[in-house]
Amino acid sequence: MLIHETAGITDTECRIQLNINSPIGENLKILGGEYSVFLKKEEDGIYMKSFIEKSFEKMLALNPGAFQEIGDYFSLTEKLESSEIHELMVNLNSIPTVMMHQPFLSNGKMNILFSYRHTVAKDVSNTLLPVVLKNNFVYNIRIRPTKGAMETLLNMNKKRPLTVIRFSIHRDVHAGKKLMDALESSNSLGRLVNDYLEHGQFKIAVVSEKPLELLEGIEEIPKMENSYWVRANNPILGKIMEKAASRGIYIDTTYIRPVKRHIQVTQFVPSIRATEYLQILFNTSLEEIQRNDVSVEIASPLTEELIELI
After folding, report:
1. Over the stretch 116-169, which tens digit does the pLDDT of each residue have?
2. DSSP summary character for residue 94
3. Minimal CA–CA distance to 26: which of 8, 41, 48?
4. Which uninterrupted H or E stretch holds 99?
């Protein structure tokens, strides 16, 4: 089963635009366009990092000292005045089937983008209601049907370029070999749902070609044929995700498929951070198991033509 052959679990997309009091937002509003951001919770509050291509260097004269040069891009870090945005994302992420996409700044507004199954629309509405009622916090909300994650990613790619990175890890590093056997024999495809850093374990929404045996860690998704929640752990992938997060690299969407005794991982990463992320892949494998067990199969800008191949 290829990624483009299935719509997966989600069929609805929501974009929330929030008014925020942010020097970063005001700086980037002057430049125009959309800019991916990374939100990180620290002991003393919530921090926001933005990333800007070096081609904008001549336009940073307003406040050049605020931007840190890192490799092929500039970054800007700011502590948010409140934790409401982070709390909203955490609350949304706790709803079954909700899958978060990378937040971004546009015209001085914070944009929270996520997709979900229409059957949890009431839960989503209940989560958004307190935010909507807050005075002058929500600028706009747009909800629309989608054909799945690929449609959302292609739309994102138009203004915030993404790179497709596919790599494989030998299945022996995975703790649940019986689980991986079941997923491979049923030709299953999974997409990570939850924030690994919050839970320390991967929760995966799985679609399979035939019914799965309900082993430990597998449960059926109600009213969806051959669809399951799978809880699993993979030490190398876990470390990779932790290191990416520590550097502010947002991995927008992760697909997992067991194939030929390997775990094939397909991810969508902001293009300006792709080289840095590839370094993390190789270094993590060497550090964890003292050998390079990561085999990169694809590292290419996202295009409609490429999607037909994955």
Report:
1. 999 999 999 999 999 999 888 999 999 999 988 889 999 999 999 999 999 988
2. T
3. 48
4. strand 99-100
3 state DSSP class of 282: helix
Q: Amino acid identity, residue 290?
A: Q
Identity of residue 224: M
- Stated pTM of the model: 0.88
Q: What is the mean pLDDT of residues 254-281?
A: 91
How does 129-152 read in b/e, with b if 16+ C-beta sit within 10 Å? eebeeeeebbeeeeeeeeebbbbb
AA letter at 24 = I
Helices (H), 94-167: 121-133, 149-157
The residue written with tokens 């996409």 in the block is: 101
Bridge-based pairing of strands 104-106 and 262-270 is unpaired
Q: Which residues contact 203 (CB under 8 A, 6 or more apart)?
A: 192, 193, 194, 229, 230, 231
Band the pLDDT of 174: cuts 50, 70, 90.
low
What is the C-alpha separation between 94 and 89, in angstroms, rounded? Answer: 9
